Amino acid sequence: MKRALAVLKMALREAEASGLVVRNVARMAAPVRVERREVSPFTPDQARKFLEAAKGHKLEALFVVAISCGLRQG
Q1: pLDDT tens digit sequence for 21-65
Q2: Structural domain boundaries of the chain?
């Protein structure tokens, strides 16, 4: 989020300097605080059980890819 706000501020600063916008309202925005959560990945046994339970689910392929590649939410 911090990077997105920095890019937006920079883009609006350029637009303001070029006369495309009257003022850069992004300067007034405060960065959003993101709460960090503890990550507890599946053990191999838990992953196996999860995939067994997901058999036949419409998102089964997604679950297999996510577990196989170590993907996380977000």
Answers
A1: 999 988 888 877 878 888 888 999 999 999 999 999 999 999 999
A2: 1-36, 40-74
